[in-house]
From TrEMBL:
Protein name: Uncharacterized protein
Domain of life: Bacteria
Key words of the record: Signal
Signal peptide (from-to): 1-19
Length: 176
């Protein structure tokens, strides 16, 4: 019995040592947020003050990412656009795609322009930069999903892979 007691004591103590391990990297996972995506298409016009709004429903601690579709890829905004000089148009034209959000809405806008968008764009430029613009709103948890690993939010494909998002289930909305 004297030889059995020390072994029993070691087994009993080791049970508590391993059960009190606080190195669980998944303890920071945000369980109240389900990553999701929504496409919104709209035109920026003088009538809508070069902005449109999409309704969302998120927790105040979640992250909203907005990407602009470029025809074959997605580009994270905010993004400053520098337009080439064109005869008859103002010089050094620039503006920024931007967004603001709260727990109920995302507003996507064209900001910080240094010229009049109504008169300072050619019709081809207006079609390229203002008309029928498609944006993808991606809602993700603020806390890391995989043991503290990080993801490059500039890389749309990395975000989709990291959060295991299914692009076939994207909800599409047309505004304006």
């Amino acid at each position: 019995m004297k030889k059995f007691f020390p072994l029993l004591l070691i087994a009993f103590v080791s049970l508590f040592i391993f059960s009190c391990d606080d190195n669980d990297n998944d303890s920071f996972v945000d369980n109240d947020t389900y990553s999701q995506m929504r496409d919104v298409t709209g035109s920026f016009t003088n009538a809508n003050n070069y902005a449109f709004t999409q309704g969302i429903n998120i927790q105040s601690t979640d992250v909203v990412l907005v990407y602009r579709y470029l025809g074959d890829s997605w580009q994270l905004i905010p993004k400053m656009m520098y337009l080439p000089d064109v005869t008859g148009m103002p010089l050094n034209r620039e503006f920024q795609y931007n967004f603001v959000f709260d727990s109920q809405n995302v507003q996507i806008s064209v900001d910080d322009e240094n010229f009049s968008l109504a008169t300072g764009l050619t019709s081809a430029e207006a079609n390229q930069y203002l008309n029928n613009q498609r944006f993808r709103i991606v809602l993700v948890p603020a806390s890391p999903a995989k043991g503290g690993a990080t993801v490059d939010y500039n890389d749309y494909n990395a975000v989709i892979k990291y959060y295991n998002l299914d692009e076939s289930k994207v909800i599409t909305t047309k505004v304006n």
